[in-house]
Specification:
Number of strands: 9
Radius of gyration: 16 Å
Distance between the termini: 31 Å
CATH superfamily: Spore Coat Polysaccharide Biosynthesis Protein SpsA, Chain A
Domain MobA-like NTP transferase: 3-152
CATH class: Alpha Beta
Order of helices and strands: EEEHEHEHEHEEHHE
Keywords: Cytoplasm, GTP-binding, Magnesium, Metal-binding, Molybdenum cofactor biosynthesis, Nucleotide-binding, Transferase
Organism: Lacibacter cauensis
GO molecular function: GTP binding; metal ion binding; nucleotidyltransferase activity
Structural class: alpha/beta
CATH topology: Spore Coat Polysaccharide Biosynthesis Protein SpsA, Chain A
Largest sheet: 7 strands, mixed
InterPro entries: MobA-like_NTP_Trfase, Molybde_CF_guanTrfase, Nucleotide-diphossugar_trans
Length: 194
């Protein structure tokens, strides 16, 4: 398994690259890397083409996976499928960089569910009936299914929700005290108190 930090968004509402924002003297991307690395997993960072140079100044180039424009998909799904194409045999533990409050213990819990319940394509948290697809484990076999759909022109929507509709999903209910871990930040005004 490899950890994938999704940093390839446009950050248009934030006005600056979210993965390179700092919290407690570390970039959000590095904070996310450290949380997955605590599970003793290798970690790569998913970026878009325009971000590569900026991220290469902060991280080793070998640790960056650039979105494959040839996949012709958009959003987080592009980052996940690009990572899959780059590491086709690896199951991926995906974490968005804009979840800076994510707790390492919750990632460990997710990983343990994956180890204890083999046979699913995806493992993720369910927050009041809504999947949390940007803190999840995607199994290589399931991602291959999605990529084959893309190649056949059957990936009619590029949302993570659409992808999950085509996978067998192991859902873990989010406890009340864990909900704040899934808070993502999209605008400067939301950073107050962080």
């Amino acid at each position: 398994m490899t950890g994938i930090i999704l940093c390839g968004g446009q950050s248009t509402r934030m006005g600056t690259d979210k993965g390179l924002l700092k919290h407690e003297a570390k970039t959000w991307a590095q904070t996310a890397v450290d949380k997955i690395a605590a599970l003793q997993l290798p970690v790569k960072i998913s970026v878009n083409n325009q971000q590569f140079a900026d991220y290469a100044e902060v991280f080793a180039k070998d640790d960056l996976i650039v979105d494959a424009a040839s996949l012709a998909v958009h959003g987080p799904l592009l980052g996940v499928l690009s990572a899959h194409v780059h590491l086709p045999t690896q199951d991926l533990l995906v974490l968005a960089c804009d979840l800076p409050l994510m707790d390492s213990a919750l990632l460990k819990e997710l990983y343990q569910y994956y180890l204890d319940n083999p046979g699913y394509d995806a493992y993720l948290f369910d927050n009041d009936g809504e999947h949390e697809p940007l803190c999840a484990i995607y199994v290589a076999k399931g991602l291959l299914t999605i990529d084959e759909m893309r190649q056949r022109g059957e990936l009619t929507r590029h949302s993570m929700k659409f992808m999950l509709d085509h996978l067998s999903v192991y859902s873990i209910p989010v406890k009340e005290e864990q909900k704040s871990f899934f808070r993502n930040f999209n605008a400067h005004a939301e950073l107050n108190g962080l």
